[in-house]
Amino acid sequence: MEQKNFPPIADILIVDDTPENLRLLSVMLAQEGYKVRQAINGTIALNAVRRMAPDLILLDIMMPEIDGYEVCLALKADPQTTNIPVIFLSALDDIVDKVKAFSVGGVDFINKPFQVQEVLIRVKSQLELKTAKQKILQLNAELEKRVQQRTQELEIANAQLKKMAMQDPLTELPNRVFFMQQLKHLLLELHECQQRKFALLFLDCDRFKVINDSLGHPIGDELLISLARHLQAFLKPTDTLARLGGDEFAMLIADIESIEDAIDVAKTILDSFNQPFKIQGREIFLSASIGMAKATPDYTQPEYLLRDADSAMYRAKALGKSRYHIFDPSLHEEALSFFQVETDLRRAIAREEFTVYYQPIIALSSGKIAGFEALVRWQHPTRGLLSPNFFISIAEETGAIAAIGSSVLARACQQLRQWQERGLGTSTLSINVNLSVRQFASKDLLERIDLAIADACLDPCCLKLEITESVIMDNQRASRVLQQLRDRRIKICLDDFGTGYSSLNYLHRFPLNTLKIDKSFIGSWNNSSSSLGLVPVIINIARTMGLDTVAEGIETREQLERLKNLDCDFGQGYFFSRPLNATQATELLESSPQWD
Ligand code: C2E
Ligand code: MG
Ligand code: MG
After folding, report:
1. What does pTM read for this prediction?
2. Is residue 2 part of a domain?
3. Which terminal CB of the chain, N or C, has fewer other CB atoms within 10 Å?
4. Atom 42 (ligand 1): residue with closest C-alpha?
5. What share of the chain is helix, strand, coil (3-state, %, to 5)?
6. Cα distance between the two ends of the chain
7. Which residues form ligand 1's pocket by a CB distance below 6 Å?
C-alpha cells in the first residue's frame, strides 16, 4: 500500500502594526489549519523569528520604528533565517515600492485591503514552493553523499589495483614492474650522485621444477612463500626484494661501499640453504644460483643491469649451480650473446639449425672404429658453428633440450642405419647419443627412443646412451628406466666419469655397460710425469664390475700407449679424429682406418 506523507502543519508569523489586520489574518489562516503567531512590530517579529523560525512570514511594510523592508533585510542577512519566505502585505501601491519589496528579498506582494482568497492561495503556493525547494536540497545532499561514497569506493579500488599491478600475489613481494621502477630510480640517483653505489642480485632456484613435479604445485607455492620471507631477513630496510616470476627473485642491495658487501649477502644466503625449509611437515632442501652485477654510471638503462645480473646467474648455473657469480663487464660481449641464446634457440629449433657431428670411438685392441659419438652442433646464422657447451645448459634450463635431443637421437639412428646398409664399418658398429638430465627425466623418454629406433629400423643393441652421474643421483626412477632400456638391449654409458660424484661404489646398483673416463684425467698426464693418477684404479674397478672403459680426450700417441698398457677398451679423441660432419664421417669409414 502506498504510504502518504502528510506535511507538518506550517507555522506562519504575521507582522502588522494594525491589530485588526492581525486578528483577521490569524482567524483566516487558523481556519485553514495553519499554526499562527503574531507580532505587532518589527522588533517583536525579529525576536520571535530568532526564537523559532516560522515557515512563512506575512509582513506589513509601513510600521513605526523598523519598517517591513528593514525587517526583511535583517532576516535575509542572517543565514539562519535567510530562507524563510516573506510575503509583503501593504497599502503602498506604487510600482517602486513593489520593486523594492522584491529587491530586499520578498517573494510576493499582496495589496491591502486584501482578499481572503488571494492571501490563502499565495500563502499556499509559497509554502509549496518552499517544500519543493527543501526537497531539492535534501535530494542534492543525498546525491552529494552518494557521490562521496562512490568516490571513496573508487579510491579504494584504485589503490587495490595499483597494489595488484605492483605486487606479486603469491608472495606479496613487489613484482617486476615495481622492481624496475625502483631500479630506474636508483640508477638516476647514481647518475646524479656517484656515491650512491648499489648492486643487483639475481637469484634463481636450482631444480625447482623437480620440487614442483614431485611434491606438487601447492607445496612448491608454499616453498616460494617461505623463501620470500627467508630472503627478506637478509636485507636492510633500504634494500628491495622482488619476485620476478617463477622461482626467480631479484634484490637491490643499496648503499654499498664495494661489491664485497653484496658478495657477503649472496654468501650468507647460499650458506643458509644448509638448513631445510619446513613445509607441511616435510623438510625440503633448496639451493639456488645467484648472479650479481654492480651498478655503474655506464648503465644507461635499468634493463641492462638486470640483464647482466641474469647472465651472471646463468653462468653460476653453468659452473655447477648453488653458487654466485659476479658479472664481469669486460665479458660484456659474451654476456650479450648469452642473453640472446635463449631467444635464438627457439628460432633455431623451428629453422632446424642443429646438425649432428660424429666422433669415432676406437677399439684400442684392434685400432679400428667401433662406433661414433653423436655430438650436436648449432649452425648459427651469424655466429657460425657453435659448440654444445655454449648452449646445452641454457637449452636444459629453458626446456629446449627436449626438441634438440629428440632430433639428435633420430638423426643419429638414421645415420647409423645408412652406414650399416652400405656395409661400412664392422658388423657391431654402434652409435652413442648423449642424454641430458632433463631428457632423462622426461616422461616420454622411452617412447621417443622406441620411435627413433623403429623409424630407422635399427637393432636396439647398436644404440648406446650416454648419461652423467647426476642423472642417476638426481632421479629416483633412474634405476627403473635404466632397467627398461636394458630390457630393450639398449646400452648405457656413464659419461664424464670422475668429474661428478666420483663414487664407484654405487655403480653396481645400476645396469650400466660402459664407463667413460673424463678427458680431464687423460689431459692432466704430461709427458714427463709417470703418475697415472686414478685412471688405473678406475679401469680395474670397472673391469671387476663387468663394465667396458672408454678414455675420452686422447690427443697424443703417448696417451694412447699408456691407455693400451692399462688395458682400456676404447678410446676417443683428437688423436684419432675430431668430431666430423656426416659426409666426412662417411668418408672416414669408407677409408677403413686403423690406428695401432
Ligand atoms: P661429451 O659427451 O663428454 O663429449 C665429448 C666432448 O669432448 C665433445 O665436445 C668432443 O668434441 C670433445 N672432445 C673429443 N675429443 C677431444 C680431445 O681429444 N680433446 C678435447 N679437448 N676435447 C675432445 P663437444 O662436442 O663440444 O660436446 C660437449 C658436450 O656437450 C658433450 O660432452 C656432451 O656432454 C654435450 N653434448 C653434445 N652433444 C649433445 C647432445 O646431442 N645432447 C646432449 N644432451 N648433450 C650433448
Ligand atoms: Mg658424451
Ligand atoms: Mg664426456
Report:
1. 0.53
2. no
3. N
4. 434
5. 50, 20, 30
6. 115
7. 359, 375-376, 387-389, 392, 405, 408, 434-436, 466, 495-496, 519, 552-555, 572-574, 579
